[in-house]
Amino acid sequence: MIRRIVAVLVLILCAGIFAGCATTSNPVSILYLPSAEARGGSGNLFLKVSTRRAVSNNTNSVRWVIGKQKDSDGNVTGEILAARSEEDMVLDAIKRELSAAGYSVETGSTMPKGVSKGLDLTSILVEVDETSGIPKVEAEARVKISMDVWKNGIVVKKLSFESKASDFATINRDRLPREMIEKGLSGVMNQAVPDIILALERNPPTEERR
User: Fold this and answer.
1) Do 97 and 36 touch, CB atoms closer than 8 A?
2) Beta bridge partners of 21
3) 21: containing domain
4) More confident residue, 177 or 23
5) Are 143 and 125 contacting, i.e. CB atoms less than 8 angstroms apart?
6) Residues with Cβ < 8 Å from 59, sequence gap 6 or more?
7) How many CB atoms lie under 10 A from the CB of residue 18?
8) How many separate domains does the chain show?
9) Longest dimension (CA), the chain
């Protein structure tokens, strides 16, 4: 009986060590599927990203850090990496959503002069934190975007959206950060797409007052 108790204590101690001494995780890879059911978009839409992005000829030298790993006491034990930048994740999601809504989406770094319909993604935030313990791991993701909506060469609307997602897991713990980011992206897109369509298709092309 004593040996069994000792063995159990040793197993718990080892689990605690592995949970509390997490190293940098494998990069989180997002597979986003359109979830917003908004329709009514039409024509060409230019999608611009104006946030700062890292550039490297050697992709292995770029590390996209999107969050922290912590133990149950709140001590930072590692980093959460992403396979792509925050901008790329959001750009891919919103492009898929707007295409599904009916737009023919083109991307670029400079808004064309006199653009008939355009979006300028002025601010992008994607982050996720993970807390490991026994027997579960918890994760919380936050996605926030801001944009200018362009129509006939002028800004007609400024929009901002934010979504949070949190959950815990006792099995498949390594999947949790990815699932929370995907839920956060989905939450933002479900807010954003209907408002984008409304601004582009129904609002008069007058510059918004500041």
Assistant:
1) yes
2) none
3) 2-201
4) 177
5) yes
6) none
7) 11
8) 1
9) 81
Phi, psi of 203 (to 5 degrees): -70, 145
83 in the Ramachandran plot: left (φ > 0), alpha (ψ -120 to 50) or beta? Answer: alpha
Domain presence at residue 206: no
* pTM of the predicted protein model: 0.78
Residue 23 pLDDT level (bands cut at 50, 70, 90): very low
- Tell whether 209 is covered by a domain: no
What residue type is 44 in one-letter code? N
User: Does residue 144 lie within any of the structural domains?
Assistant: yes
Cα four-point dihedral sign 33, 128, 88, 42: positive
Q: Name the CA dihedral angle for 100, 101, 103, 107, rounded to a multiple of 10 degrees.
A: -60
Percent of the chain surpassing pLDDT 70: 79
Q: Give the integer Cα–Cα distance in Å for 165 and 117.
A: 31
Is residue 210 in a domain?
A: no
Using 50, 70 and 90 to split pLDDT, how confident is the model at 114? Answer: very high
CATH code of the domain containing 156: 3.40.50
Does residue 24 register a pLDDT over 80?
A: no
Q: How confident is the model over 33-57, as pLDDT tens digits?
A: 888 888 999 999 999 986 554 434 4
